[in-house]
Design brief:
The chain has 356 residues and is α/β, with parallel strands linked by helices. The chain is 28% helix and 25% strand. The protein is built from 11 helices and 20 strands. Strands 2, 3, 15, 16, 17, 18, 19 and 20 form an 8-stranded mixed sheet that branches. Strands 5, 6, 7, 8, 9, 10, 11 and 12 form an 8-stranded mixed sheet that branches. It has a two-stranded antiparallel ribbon with strand order 1-4. It is globular, with a radius of gyration of 21 Å. It starts with a strand and ends with a helix.
Length: 356
């Protein structure tokens, strides 16, 4: 088990003003202002069934695959009486996953580092090709997960995608337990491993990178200022994005839609970041690749004060700043509501941290 401090945000503003004491106290106390992350353990399961990222032995759910705070995402779980046999594949079978695996950020931080188990299985089964078992999603996510898995694991790796609505039976299945605790605290060691394998030149895995894109963005600078935008066709839209874009461009920021880039490109760009500002979402999970000391500024609606990203900054040694804007009236769930950020508030923050 690994624990680490959660420093208070260096900036905590609500609607253009310092946060009220109740919000400050909530950040100070939740949860106990400290991250505690469990080690991941590789286990062997006999006579196990898989459905919707949840593992069962008999009718009993394996708790680690169905954590309390994630159960709402799994929906009703009805096992087929006659489970289909697991797919045919070479070597030992390995499953990693969680209820948020459909999301790039949760996949990157919570699933991908557990593929270090592939190394263990290769040692235990020399000459055998490990078969990675993943529930099928849409084409884009399948392609992203396949590419990042091969990139992270290196060497031969078989990957099979299963229908999430079908129950599969495995006589023997390996499972790597979670690297997070209570859905928030995430292993600093797991994050460092992702950074080492995907972003650091010493890993030998860094691509020539959309080389032209990085060189053009740097424009003679040693470091980048990145503003992480969010596709306006998605939820949690920054309603005054035109004003905010103009502000950050004037400060030398490159506006980036991370969703349009492959994972190696994202890793390399964030590894060169001098500072990162952006709309809270999966794209900002890439700050895991930023060096310690890189200031991170998150913009979000006042109704979305989730500490998930504060934890990343704490584990990676990055100063964390949060600006919460006015949420629009909407039938959307609180964390998906569109919002507005006061440009003067953001300008003042950028001034204070030396990004003029």
């Amino acid at each position: 088990e690994r624990d680490y401090d959660w420093p208070m945000p260096e900036t905590l503003h609500l609607r253009g003003a310092p946060a009220p004491e109740a919000m400050v106290q909530a950040f100070r106390d939740a949860p106990a202002a400290r991250g505690v992350a469990p080690p991941s353990v590789l286990v062997v399961l006999e006579e196990v069934r898989l459905r919707r990222n949840v593992l069962f032995q008999g009718r009993t759910v394996l708790y680690e695959t169905h954590l309390l705070q994630e159960r709402y995402m799994a929906g009703p779980l009805v096992l087929d009486d006659d489970a289909e046999p697991g797919p045919a594949g070479p070597g030992p079978y390995l499953y990693v996953g969680n209820q948020g695996s459909f999301n790039y950020g949760h996949w990157l931080l919570e699933d991908l580092p557990r593929l270090k188990a592939v190394e263990v299985l290769r040692r235990l089964h020399p000459g055998k090709t490990v078969t990675l078992v993943l529930p099928r999603q849409d084409w884009f996510n399948n392609r992203m997960r396949e590419r990042t898995s091969r990139f992270f694991a290196g060497g031969p790796l078989a990957i099979v995608f299963l229908d999430p609505e079908t129950t599969y039976h495995f006589p023997r299945l390996h499972y790597a337990t979670p690297v997070k605790h209570l859905g928030i605290a995430k292993s600093p060691d797991a994050m460092a491993e992702i950074d080492r394998r995907l972003a650091r030149p010493a890993s030998g895995l860094r691509p020539a990178l959309a080389g032209a894109r990085l060189r053009a963005a740097l424009r003679g600078r040693r470091a980048l200022r990145l503003f992480i935008d969010r596709n306006p066709l998605r939820e949690r839209v920054l309603l005054n994005r035109t004003d905010i874009h103009a502000l950050v461009r004037a400060r030398g920021f490159e506006i980036l839609d991370a969703e349009r880039l492959g994972v190696p490109d994202q890793a390399a760009l964030f590894a060169h970041a001098e500072a990162v500002v952006g709309i809270k979402g999966a794209g900002l999970v890439n700050t895991v690749f930023c060096p310690p000391g890189t200031p991170v500024v998150h913009l979000a609606p006042e109704t979305f004060q989730d500490p998930y990203y504060r934890d990343i900054a704490a584990a990676r040694g990055q100063p964390y700043h949060a600006l919460y804007g006015r949420a629009a009236e909407s039938a959307q769930r609180d964390h998906l509501r569109d919002f507005t950020i006061d440009p003067a508030d953001l300008a003042g923050l950028l001034d204070r941290i030396g990004l003029r």
